[in-house]
Amino acid sequence: MTAELLDENSVTAYVIEQGLFSSSSKVDVQLLTGGVSNVVIALCAEGKEYVLKQALPQLRVKSTWLADPRRAIVEARALDVLHAITPERVPRLRYLDPDRFVVVLDRADSRCTNWKEDLLSGKISADVAHQLGETVGSWHKSSSTNPELLNEFIEDELFEQLRINPFYRSLAPIHTDIAPLLQKLIDELEGNRTSLVHGDFSPKNILVTHENHAIVLDFEVAHTGNPVFDLAFLLGHFLCKQEHLDNDRDRNCLALCASSFISAYQNSYHSPDPSLAWHLATIALARVDGVSPAGYLDWQGQNRVRERCLRILRLQNPPSIREVFFQS
User: Fold this and answer.
1) Is 4 exposed, middle or buried (0-12, 13-18, 19+ CB in 10 A)?
2) Domains and CATH numbers, the chain
3) What is the enclosing helix (H) or strand (E) of 205?
4) Distance between CA atoms of 85 and 79, rounded to whole angstroms?
5) Which member of 42, 72, 96, 196 lies 3.0 to 4.6 Å from 143 by CB, making a disulfide possible if both were Cys?
6) What is the pLDDT of residue 160?
């Protein structure tokens, strides 16, 4: 049964009924845009600022992309766990409605910028990348020694729907020569379940405060899995943005971000899997030939990403991160 979706007209009565605000409150409501997988509404009253998210059963992309809305329940639990590890990086969970797949969390300062938009505009901070390497490293390290937590987040279907199918399997019929390698990479992801993985560690899910501090959002694909995926997901976006930016200075700054991110991760946890470059190239290739293409890439940029990723994926051995980003 599909839950009724909330909107600007129905949300006030809903949040008052759930006890988030008093019945006499005049709630300021703002419909937020930019996501493809949720209804997202900002709420403000009584000195409190929240964001309400309700999971959609079908994502807003051109291709048909169905996803189980129970991912909202996964996100709520992940928010609790990861806020406890890095409270300065993860918003606090305020409410979960498991029947209507609604999550309510604290809203970040409205003056925050979105890191994706910062990167695309040439505002590129290696310090933010360093913070993120430390953050995801602390998540992976802390969770790797907690078998009860890992057991709680074992998840096959959601990760398959939202990541394996669109970012790996969808490429095999298009690029048949690398299909065996794609299957090998899938086997790595499914066979090495050692940490709590964010699953959507992308610049679009990162806010940056005026003090240049990173805040991470969107935990609905969190699962027990292979830590390499979080690293590859962020770095795959870096590769795409390198091919979008049109000057050497910005491209080099993104390369420095990649290096800073991995260095901080290694210092916080350990060295990533040798296959990291193949995973990030797969994810970047999927942003061109998968079900959710990067809207900021023109056709020339798409061709450059495709050629660069296929070149990496056709190598006998995966290159280092420095070779990927500094010799492009």
Assistant:
1) exposed
2) 11-106 (3.30.200.20), 113-326 (3.90.1200.10)
3) none
4) 10
5) 196
6) 87
